[in-house]
Amino acid sequence: MKTMKTLIAASVAAASMTMVAAPASAELSASVSVASMYLWRGFDLSDGSPAVSGDLTYSTGGFYAGVWGSSGDDTYGQEVDYYAGFATQAGPISIDLSVWNYVYPGASAGFADNGDTFGDLSEIILGLGAGPVSLTIYDNVAGGSGYYYYTLGYDVDKFSFLLGGTDNKNEDSNYSHFDVSYAYNDKVSFTFSQMIDEDNDDDLKFVVSYSLPIDM
C-alpha cells in the first residue's frame, strides 16, 4: 500500500507530497520519472528494483485532479492512483487538501479489500506550508488498517529534510524514518532514507531519480 507520491516524487517516492500552487488558469501537465527503487515512507517497495512512474494533472483556479501510475511494487505489482484536491494560499500559509485513491490492477482476489478496485483504499491528505517548513497529514479513510501518517519537512537551498512517522491503532506497527534529499538540478535528485525504529529494516537506503516534464 502506498500514497502520495508527490511528496517524494523525485524518489518516488512515494511517496511525498509537495504543495501545489494555485494556477491562474486551466492547465494540463504531465511528467515521467525513473528511480533506482520505489521508496515509500521509508520502505523499499520494489525490493531494490528500478521503478518507472508518470502522472497527468489538470488544474484550474486552485482545483486539480489527475492520475499517477507506477510500474509497481514487489508485492502488488502495477499501481494506479487517482487524486483530486484544492490548493490555496492564506497569507504566509499554503494549504493543500486532497483525496487519493490507490488501485492495484494486478493484485490477487485476496487483496480485494485493500486496493485492487476503485474505492477500496483511500486517504485524505492535508498539507500545510510556511516558508521552508511543511507539515503533511495522511488519514486512511478506506482500506488498510486505520492509521495516520505524518511528515515534517524543511527545505534549504537544494537540500530537503523529511521526518515521517505513523500513528497506527496497532502500536506495534508504528515506525518513523528520516530522509535527506539533494536536488542536483530540476531533473536529477538523490535521497538517503533511514529508519529510526529498531523494529524495522535499519539499512540506509539510497535512491537516484530522474524526472522529466512533458510538453503538452
TrEMBL record:
A Pfam match: Gcw_chp
Annotated keywords: Signal
Stretch forming the signal peptide: 1-21
InterPro entries: CHP02001
The keyword Signal is annotated on this UniProt entry: yes
NCBIfam families reported for this sequence: gcw_chp
UniProt name for this protein: TorF family putative porin
